[in-house]
Specification:
Blueprint: H1 4-19, E1 41-46, E2 59-68, E3 80-85, H2 95-100, H3 110-116, E4 119-130, E5 144-148, H4 150-160, E6 178-181, E7 183-185, E8 188-190, E9 195-196, H5 205-214, H6 229-244, H7 250-253, H8 270-284, H9 287-292, H10 311-328
Antiparallel strand pairs: 1-4, 1-6, 2-3, 2-4, 4-5, 6-9, 7-8
Length: 329
């Protein structure tokens, strides 16, 4: 397991770099802190990743949302969204972001660029020590998973870089709880006052017994599956169709990625279907938080949903502008 000094060095290296330039079925382990009432606080005790090769006690997930004007062949369908993995999460070049990055150079394209930019979230695990959710049911394995937004992660990271923190907060004896505090800012939920506890506490005998009995999660198991070459081609095709303002084509893409609630096309085998379904489930939980929480990643704020009556025309205009620039370059 990495030391606090190792984590600080890696976080600093990531900052320098950035400024210079099959998912398991849900087991009820995800703790939905975003369901807290305004003014409530949940206290979490984070644990290490089971993967000793992961220097952090979290893992970053990157998702791209592709909105479509309904489903092809369904006259009653409304706008749907397909969520796909961004392969930059796996250290590879993303075909969608390669297309979108140049859009930020044009003020008229920034809103569209924001819509298709990757959305980050962070997966942690640990115990819920103070739970304000009265209807939350703790599973048989009390080690929960937490899907943390960039706003909350900023608070976690800032304190880890503070030299006054002397030990890893996951330490079994000298660890710290993290308090997620929910307030509101305008019409959005706000978690900016979340912070680490000032008091060190040891894991209880019950918590230690739970770790012994159940073991820790390998956090990488909860990332979307890395797309194959064929799936990358499908992602790029869906992206182009989305920008064009076309509807989602389940016959063409349903064997790979589908909107939530859309069934697999006929003829798709169970083996093929498992390629597509996990991606939607993998990101289903943080959708609530991502929509309701202002993004702190400057390049990728959450764009408001386009008006259904004008989105197709607007997309066509923007696509025409993009293609015109590419032709003239």
């Amino acid at each position: 397991m990495a030391s606090l000094a190792d984590i600080r060095a890696r976080l600093a290296a990531q900052d320098n770099k950035s400024t210079g330039n099959s998912y398991p079925q849900s087991d009820g382990a995800i703790y939905p802190h975003w369901k807290m009432d305004e003014g409530a606080t949940a206290s979490l005790r984070f644990l290490s990743d089971a993967d000793s090769d992961n220097p952090f006690f979290w893992i970053e997930r990157q998702i791209i949302k592709l909105p479509f004007n309904g489903v092809k062949g369904d006259s009653n369908s409304k706008q749907v969204t397909v969520q796909v993995p961004c392969v930059e999460m796996f250290g590879e070049n993303c075909p969608v972001l390669a297309e979108v990055r140049p859009w930020y150079k044009d003020e008229t394209l920034k809103e569209m660029a924001n819509k298709y930019w990757k959305k980050r979230s962070y997966i942690f695990q640990g115990f819920v020590r103070q739970n304000p959710l009265g209807d939350d049911q703790t599973p048989a394995n009390p080690i929960r998973r937490f899907v943390i937004s960039p706003q909350i992660f900023t608070s976690i990271k800032a304190s880890l870089m503070d030299p006054e923190m002397e030990e890893l907060p996951t330490h079994s004896v000298r660890g710290l709880d993290f308090n997620i505090k929910k307030t509101t800012k305008g019409q959005y939920a706000d978690y900016s006052t979340s912070s680490w506890s000032r008091k060190e506490t040891a894991l209880t005998e019950v918590e230690q017994a739970a770790i012994e009995a159940h073991g820790l999660f390998n956090l990488a198991d909860f990332l979307p599956k890395k797309p194959s070459e064929a799936e990358l081609r499908v992602i790029k095709e869906m992206f182009e169709a989305s920008v064009d303002g076309r509807p989602y084509d389940n016959d063409k893409w349903g064997a790979y990625y589908r909107p939530f609630g859309v069934q697999a096309p006929s003829g798709v085998t169970t083996e093929t279907e498992t390629v597509a379904a996990p991606v939607a489930e993998a990101v289903a939980t943080p959708v609530v938080e991502t929509v309701s929480t202002p993004q702190v990643e400057v390049a990728a704020p959450v764009a408001a949903p386009a008006d259904s009556g004008t989105s197709s025309d607007k997309a066509q205009d923007i696509l025409a502008m993009i293609r015109a620039r590419q032709n003239n370059s």
